[in-house]
C-alpha cells in the first residue's frame, strides 16, 4: 500500500529523445519529469520502478483507474479474436454493444430520448460538432459561453474557451462571453444579467444558437454552478430558442457522483458533449448526445476517420456493465468525495484564505496563488503523488483521483498532499523571511 | 482465398439500435449495411460470417491491414503487462520507443530535423495545430488552400476544406482558395497564377501564414500534383515568408509508395500533418512534424486529453519496425500499384471517357458520374468487395486496399470491381433503353 | 412665434415618387409623412407652408439650428467666389481655417495635443478609422463595446453597435460586449466587472485594442454614464494597454453643454470620433482626433473620396467662430437644459413610472413602452412638433432641440410635447377601458 | 487659356498647421503640396494665384468640373432661400426633384425598375449597404470579388477591396477572390474559372450572396472588362442565385461615356452602387439602385445621419437636367476620349513597353513602374498639371479630366503630360548612366 519504493532506480532514464525530437508544446512532462511505463488502478509506475499515487487520472479520463481489470480483459479478448479495431462509422458489433448498454443503463432510466453521434475521438471535436449542429438547427451564429469555460482548442471550440493563453490572440468569432455562476461575487446573479442581455434588442447580444456550459468548470478552477442557476440558464435557452449544450467532458461519467453532472438538476439538455472517461480505459472516444428534435444532420456532414475506435467501444461497454448496472457506484463516489472534502477542509487551514472548490470527486483547493500551487505539486511529486492545478492563475489544487481509488490509498494521497501544502507554505514563509 | 462465404448468415442481425439511437449523421454504414465483427489483413467479416475484401482500409487508416500480427502481438503484450494506456503528454516508455524509431527510421535517413508534436488523435486536430502554429510564427492570418482539398471538419481546418457539403454555409474565414495543380486543364499553370496573386499588392490575397496542400488529394478525387508543381509551390512559400504545410494524413505512411508522399520531390515542408495509418493498427493518433526553426509553441499552448494514446504508440513503433526498417516495402507497394494500374486501365474501357486518377496505392477511376459510381459500389458490396468513392461529385472509384494485400487477393478484388463496373454500365444502358 | 400655420396647404403634395422609387429602407419619412422644403433656426417648413418646431435637429446634426445665418453667409460667400467644393485630402484654405480655429478654440484651451484625421464624412466611417488605428497601434483585435452602444452600421462599426435590428444576424466579430454604466441596476458596478474580465487570463476576454464608449448613449436611450465610471474605464484602458475611444458623434459639439461630452471628467481619450454637428450646418463631415502617440497611419492607409468636403469646413469654421469663441454658449445651453429638465419632470407625472434620462440638451423621458412613445410622436407631429424616440424598445422620448432654440419656442415645443403625452396616455386609458 | 500664371505668389503660404495638427494619414497633399483656394471648370487655383489643369477631378467626383455654373446657381438659390440643408431621410422637395429626374432621365429610358436607396454619402457606405442586402436576400455570406478591385475601406467593403496596403492585415472575411478579366493573360478566361469554381461542390467556394465588380477598375489600374466577360459573369450570378452588384462609383456618371459604365452591355445588375460624381458638384452623396425584387430592407435597417444631404440632391438634379436631358453629352465625352487616346498613344512611345489602359474618359498609361509614374506626376505638377496614378504598383498614369473639359485645355494638359513623361524618362536614363 506504500506507493513509494525503497529501491533505487534500476538504471539511467534516457529522456534525451524527448528534448531532441518532441515539440516544445509538451507540457505535463515538464512538471512530472520521469518516464512512465505501467499503471494499475490509482498507481502509476515509472521505469525506475517508482510508484506514484495518481490524483490526476488522465485529467479525468481515467475515472475507473488504469487498466481496470474487467475492461482490460474485454479488450484483450476482443483483440485476441481479431475483433475489428477501427471501423469508420460502419456498424460493428462492438458499437452495437455499447449503444445497447448506453441506452439501457444510461438513457432509458433517465427518460432521455437522445441519439448518439460518434464524433472524432476528442472532446474538442465533439464540441465542434455540437456547435455546428446548433447553428444549423437554429440558423443562428452566436453562442453564449462563460468566463473560465474550457471546451477545447480547435478553432470553433477555442472561440468558446476562456483561456487567453490557449486563445493565442487568434481572431476567434461567434461567441458572446457571459460571467459564470458566482463569477462576480454573491451580489450578482449572472443568470439575471444574461436574461437582460438576451431580452434587450439593443444589448449587443445576437440571438443565440446555443448556450454552452460546464456544470463544474474543470480547467477553469473547479467552479461549480448551482442547480438553480443551471435551471435558469436552461429556461433562458428555451425562451430564446437556443439549444442548451452541456459539456460533460470532464464532469461527466460519474466524476461529480451520478453519471451526468446535471443528473438531478431537473434539466434536459438539447445536446450533451462527452469524452475523457467515456471509454473507461483512457482510449480516445467522444460523442454528442443529440435530442431527436435536433438530429438534423445529413449523412457524414460532420465526419472523421476515427469515429469508430472499436477498442474504445469495447471498454466503454465494459465500463457501463461493471460500474453503472447497479446504483452502488454513486454511493461509493459520494463516500470518497466526503473523505476528500474533509481532508481538504483540514488542509485549507494551512493556507490563510484558501477556499474549497468543486463538488463530488472534482474538488480542489484554491490556495490563492499559482506559485504556491506549483510548489505544492512539485513537492507532492517528489513524495510520490501526482496532482495538478487548474484555474485562471493555476491556483487551484485539483484532486482528480480515480473514482474507485481504494480508501486507504486515497487517504494516503491526501496525507501526502497535506504535507506538501504545509511544507510549501513553510518554504514560502522562510523565503519571505 | 475466396472471400465470399458459401454459408448462410448464422442468425438475425439486429440493427435496430442504430436506427433508434445513432444520429442521422452516420454515413458509411448506409452503403455497407451489415454489422462487422472481426477483420484480419485485407478481409473484414460481418456477424453472419460473410467476408469482404477491403478496398477501403479505414479510408487509408489501415495501410497494413486489419489486426496486423506484429502490432497485435505488441499491443497484447503491452496491455497484458498493464502498460500505460493513456498518459496525457507525460513521458512514457511507449512514446520514447516510437520517437526513437521515428527518428532513426524516418527522419534521419531523410535528413529531416523536424520535431514531433503529438496533437489530439485526429487529422483535423493536427491540421488545426499546424495552422495555429503557422499563424503564430508568421504573425499573419491568411492561409492558402486549394480547390478540392480536404483537411477536416473542425472550424479552423474546415475553412481550408473545399467541400461545400461539409462547410455547411458556416462563416469560415482566414483562407484564400486557389486552383490545385491541373484544376483548370492543361492550359493553366496554377502555380503561376498563385505566384501572380502573391506578388500583386492589390490582388486581394493577404500575405499568407501558410500554404497547405495534399500532394494527392484523397477526398478531392485522387488528384495528384506533379513534383514540379509542388516544388514551385514550396518555392513560393519560401519567397513569400509562408510556411509550407503538407497534409500527409491520407497520402502518407506509404500510401503512394515511400513513407512520405513528398519523398523524392526535393521539398522540405516546414510542417507535415500525419494521422490515419500512423498507428498502423487503426488506433487514433496524429502528429505534426515541426521544423525546429518554427517550434515556437509554449508548453500546452495547443493541448488535448488524448495526445498520449499509448496503445497507438506501441503499434506505431511496431509498424515502423516491421515495415520501414528494410527498403523492400516500397517495392512491394510499387508492385501492387502497378497491378492496380493495369487492372484499372482495363476496367476504364468499360466506361467511355473514364480516366485513371492518383498514384501508388492511391489510385482510382473517374467514371464521370456519381450515380454510376454509387451503383458500382453497391454491386461490389453485394459481391463481397468494400470500395468507396471520392471527388467533387463522388464520381471517382477509389482503390484504397491495404498496402500489403496479398497479390491474389488484390487481383480477386480488382476482378470483382471489374465485374461490378461492367454490370453497372450495362444496367445503366438497360435503364436508358 | 406660433409655428402652427392657420392657412391651408397650398396644393397637393405629390409623394408618389417616394413610394415608387425610394427603397423600403426609408425610415423617418414614415412617421413624419410630409415633404419639407425649407427650414430656419428651430423651425422646419413643409411644402404646404406648415411649420414645425424641430426637436429632432437632424438627430443632433443641427445643434445650431437650420441655416444658421453666420454659416449660411460664409457658405454663400465661399460658393459665390468659386471656392473649392471638394478637394480630396489636398491642402485647402478652408481646411486650414478650420484646423486653425479647431486648434485655437477647442484643442489648445483643453491642452489636447491631438491631431485631426479627416475621414469619409459619416460617423460610421470615423468609427471604422478609429477601430482600425487602435488595432494597428496595439497589434490586437478585440474591442470592448457596451450594451446599447450605437456606432454606425458599416461592418466594422456595426460589430460594436448593440442594436440587433441593425446587426441583421450578420457574422460580426472582434467585439466583447460589456454592460454599460447602470445597465444592471445600482447593485452592479459594471466597471468592476470589466476590470475583473480584463484581469482574468481565462475570462474569455482577449486583451483589447480599444475600449469604445459614448458618455451619453444617444440611440441607446439617453443613458448617461457618470464621470466616475468614465474615469474608471479610462484607467482600465491605460492599465491594459488599450486605447480609449470616445464616440462623441451625437453627444459632442455642445450637446451636453461643453464642446466635448467628456469635458470636465478628467479623462483624455486616445481617440475621439466626431461628426453630426461638426460642420454646424448639417453638411456631411467627420473626423477622428488622434493622440500624436498613436498617429501611426501611413499616408492614405484609410482613405475615401469626400474627406475634403470643403463646404463643411467653411461652415464648421464659422460655427467655431460664432459659438465657441466666447464661453457664454455653454451657459446658454445649460439654461435651456434646465428648462427642458423642469418641463420633463412635470411631463413625467403624466406617466406612472416614467423616468428622466440623459443630460444637457440630450435629455428625454422613458415612458416605459414603445407604443406609447410612438403615439406621443404622432400626436406631437399633428400639432406641429417633430420629436423622435430612442432606446432598446424605442421607449424614450428624446428632446434634441437645437442648442440655440429661442427660449419661448423651446417652451412652446415642450408644451406641445406635454399635451401630446397627456393625450396619448388618456387615449391609452380609453383604449384599455 | 494658359493655366500657368506669370505672376509671383502673393504671400507666404502657411502650411504649418497641417503638419502640426493633421494626421499622418493625409495623402494627396504630399504630392501636390500647395494650398488650394478656388476652382472653376477644369482649373484649380492655389493661394499664390497659380492655376493648375485638373486631370484628377476629385478622383472622378468632379466629372462636370469645379463649380459648374448651372449647379452653382441652383445651390446658391437653394441656400439663399433657406432650403433644407440636411433632412435625415425625411421627404424633401429636393429629394423629390432628384428622384423624379433620375427616374425620367436615367431609369425609364433604360427600362430599369430599380429603386433608390440613399445611404451614408460615401461610396464605401453604399457598398456596405449593397453587401448587407445581398446577404439578407440570399441568406448566404460569401461574396465574389476580383483581383485589383477597389470598393472602399470600411470593414465590410474592405474585405472586397484588393489592396493589401489598405487591408492592413486585418482579419477580413466573407469574400472569395477571383481573377478579373484579363488578369492572367489572354490564355485564361477568368469567367470560365469562376464558372468551374461555382459549379464545383468541393471547390472551396461557398454559394455566393453576390458577385461584385467594377466594369473598369479605377484604383486597380484602369483594367477594363470586356462586355462579353461582364455578360458571362452576370449569367453566372443568375445561374447560381447570386446578386450581381456593379460598383459604378468611379466608372459611372458618364466617366466611360454613357451614364452607367455597363450601358450597352446587355446586363441588368441587381444592385448598382453610385457615388463620387453623383451630386455633380463634388458634394458627398451615394446611393444603391435596388431591383424591386430585392428591396427587402426593413425601415432604417441600414441608416446614417447624412443620407439626406439636400445640397447634393439639388446639384445632382441640376446635373441630370444639364447634362443628361439631351443625348449629346455622351458624344462630347466620346470626342474627348478619342483625343485622350490619340495623345496617350503618342506618349506611350516615350516609354518602351508602356500600355494604354481603360476606356472612355477613364484612360491611362501603364508606364511599368511606380517610380517613373511618380516622377511624371511630380514634373507635371511643377508645370501646372494635376494627375495621379493607380494600379497595383501605382504604375498607371490616370487621366481623369472633367468630362466637359474644353478641348484646347484638354490638349494643353495632355501636352504637359507628354512633356513630363518625356523628361521623366530622360531623367531616368541620365540617372542610370
Automatic annotation (TrEMBL), chains A, B, C, D:
Pathway: Amine and polyamine biosynthesis; ectoine biosynthesis; L-ectoine from L-aspartate 4-semialdehyde: step 1/3. Its cofactor is pyridoxal 5'-phosphate. Gene3D superfamilies: Aspartate Aminotransferase, domain 1, Type I PLP-dependent aspartate aminotransferase-like (Major domain). InterPro entries: Aminotrans_3, Aminotrans_3_PPA_site, Dat, Ectoine_EctB, PyrdxlP-dep_Trfase, PyrdxlP-dep_Trfase_major, PyrdxlP-dep_Trfase_small. One of its GO terms (biological process) is ectoine biosynthetic process. One of its GO terms (molecular function) is diaminobutyrate-2-oxoglutarate transaminase activity. Keywords: Aminotransferase, Pyridoxal phosphate, Transferase. Signal peptide: none annotated. Its EC number is 2.6.1.76. The keyword Repeat does not apply. Belongs to the class-III pyridoxal-phosphate-dependent aminotransferase family. This is Diaminobutyrate--2-oxoglutarate transaminase. It comes from Sphaerotilus natans subsp. natans DSM 6575.
Amino acid at each position: 500500500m506504500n506507493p513509494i519504493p525503497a529501491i533505487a532506480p534500476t538504471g539511467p532514464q534516457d529522456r534525451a529523445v524527448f528534448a531532441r525530437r518532441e515539440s516544445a508544446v509538451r507540457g505535463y512532462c515538464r512538471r512530472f519529469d520521469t518516464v512512465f511505463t505501467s499503471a494499475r488502478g490509482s498507481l502509476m509506475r515509472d521505469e525506475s520502478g517508482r510508484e506514484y499515487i495518481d490524483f490526476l487520472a488522465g485529467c479525468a479520463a481515467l475515472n475507473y483507474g488504469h487498466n481496470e481489470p474487467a475492461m482490460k480483459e474485454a479488450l484483450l479478448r476482443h483483440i485476441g479474436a481479431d475483433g475489428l479495431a477501427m471501423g469508420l462509422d460502419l456498424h460493428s458489433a462492438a458499437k452495437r454493444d455499447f449503444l445497447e448498454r448506453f441506452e439501457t443503463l444510461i438513457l432509458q432510466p433517465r427518460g432521455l430520448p437522445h441519439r448518439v453521434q460518434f464524433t472524432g475521438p476528442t472532446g474538442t471535436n465533439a464540441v465542434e460538432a455540437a456547435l455546428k449542429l446548433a447553428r444549423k438547427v437554429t440558423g443562428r451564429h452566436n453562442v453564449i459561453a462563460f468566463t473560465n469555460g474550457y471546451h477545447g482548442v480547435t478553432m470553433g471550440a477555442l472561440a468558446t474557451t476562456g483561456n487567453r493563453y490557449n486563445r493565442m490572440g487568434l481572431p476567434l468569432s461567434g461567441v458572446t462571453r457571459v460571467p459564470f455562476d458566482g463569477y462576480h461575487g454573491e451580489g450578482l446573479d449572472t443568470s439575471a444579467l444574461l436574461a437582460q442581455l438576451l431580452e434587450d434588442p439593443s444589448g449587443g447580444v445576437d440571438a443565440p444558437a446555443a448556450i454552452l456550459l460546464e456544470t463544474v468548470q474543470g480547467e477553469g478552477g473547479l467552479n461549480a454552478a448551482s442547480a438553480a442557476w443551471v435551471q435558469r440558464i436552461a429556461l433562458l435557452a428555451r425562451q430564446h430558442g437556443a439549444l442548451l449544450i452541456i459539456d460533460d467532458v470532464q464532469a461527466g461519467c460519474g466524476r461529480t457522483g451520478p453519471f451526468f453532472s446535471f443528473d438531478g438538476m431537473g434539466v434536459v439538455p438539447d445536446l450533451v458533449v462527452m469524452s475523457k472517461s467515456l471509454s473507461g480505459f483512457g482510449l480516445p472516444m467522444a460523442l454528442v448526445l443529440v435530442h431527436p428534435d435536433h438530429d438534423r444532420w445529413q449523412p457524414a456532414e460532420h465526419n472523421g476517420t476515427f469515429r469508430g475506435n472499436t477498442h474504445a467501444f469495447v471498454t466503454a461497454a465494459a465500463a457501463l456493465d461493471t460500474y453503472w448496472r447497479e446504483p452502488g457506484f454513486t454511493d461509493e463516489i459520494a463516500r470518497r468525495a466526503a473523505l476528500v472534502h474533509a481532508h481538504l477542509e483540514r488542509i485549507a487551514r494551512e493556507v490563510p484564505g484558501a477556499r474549497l472548490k468543486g463538488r463530488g470527486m472534482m474538488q480542489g483547493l484554491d490556495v490563492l496563488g499559482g506559485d504556491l500551487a506549483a510548489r505544492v505539486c512539485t513537492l507532492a511529486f517528489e513524495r510520490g503523488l501526482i496532482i495538478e492545478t487548474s484555474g485562471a492563475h493555476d491556483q487551484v489544487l485539483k484532486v482528480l483521483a480515480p473514482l474507485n481509488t481504494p480508501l486507504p490509498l486515497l487517504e494516503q494521497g491526501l496525507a501526502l498532499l497535506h504535507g506538501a501544502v504545509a511544507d510549501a507554505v513553510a518554504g514560502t514563509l522562510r523565503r519571505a523571511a
